[in-house]
Amino acid sequence: MGARKIIIDTDPGQDDAVALLLALASPQELDLLGITCVAGNVPLDLTAKNARIVCEAAGKTDVPVYAGKKAPLNRPLVTAEHVHGQTGLDGPELWEPQMPLAAGNGVDFIIDTLRHETPGTVTLCTLGPLTNIAAAFNTAPDIIDRVQEIVMMGGAYFEVGNITPAAEFNIYVDPEAAEIIFRSGAPITVMPLDVTHKVLATKPRVAAIRALGSKAGHFTAEMLDFFERFDVEKYGSEGGPLHDPCVIAWLLKPELFSGRHVNVEIETQSDLTLGMTVADWWGVTDRQPNALFIGDADAEGFFKLLTERLARL
User: Fold this and answer.
1) pLDDT at position 231, please?
2) Per-residue pLDDT reduced to its tens digit, 202-230
3) What domains are defined for the chain?
4) Which residues participate in catalysis according to the annotation?
5) What is the mean pLDDT of the chain?
């Protein structure tokens, strides 16, 4: 069985960067067709730059990186420099990437790829707001049935919100886009805060990554040194949660995770709960399940996988 074909849609972000490194370090299992960037943690010009920096840090400059949407479908952009720093990748000493952006728009790349690859063979891995994917589905609804799976980091239920009391950041930034995805009928697996908050980059785990002694290892450790300060202060946890790498880890070792198929609806109307992922965890409605909502993870197994793969770069 060949490597699984994926497109990573992302807004790097330190945790996005670690997810990209994990995917780039796993070519036997994952055939990364391209990276599409979206505005989210920082504006689009920075997310598109950061994705190329990460590719260079991994020594993998043959993967095309596309710029996509610079704003949500219907709303002004909300960013998260307060978490990720002004560059989005604060921590390591950054550089101007030498690899160019791929020609064309990320949304068109998603559409063209899904139309030309065999139906049911391309997985969309979403690490940021869902604007690019929703725009692709709106423009070319014929591609929806061709998607193998959407694996996303986004949402929360038991852990409630991290940008508002009710909403997780990726969904909050573009709730209309999220609504389009959850109502599309495409197979969806969700990595919400409920699971990502259990995967903490503690000091010993970061030390093990730094001890790899490689460019990618130092780059990752320096990002995580910066990234953890926000969540440790906010939650009183032992380290920052590695949200986005859970998406890639799920594709590599799904046995590390557990969850249940539930219905997920997105709140788009309420000022109080805008962007909330209303997950029917207990099956109290008659709404049909539309997503596998992950609730738990083997954190030790996750970091063993991550460290082992980073050692390959």
Assistant:
1) 65
2) 999 999 999 999 999 999 999 999 987 66
3) 4-310 (3.90.245.10)
4) 243
5) 96
Q: Which two tokens stand for residue 100?
A: 């160019």
Token pair 């909050």 in the structure block, residue:
172
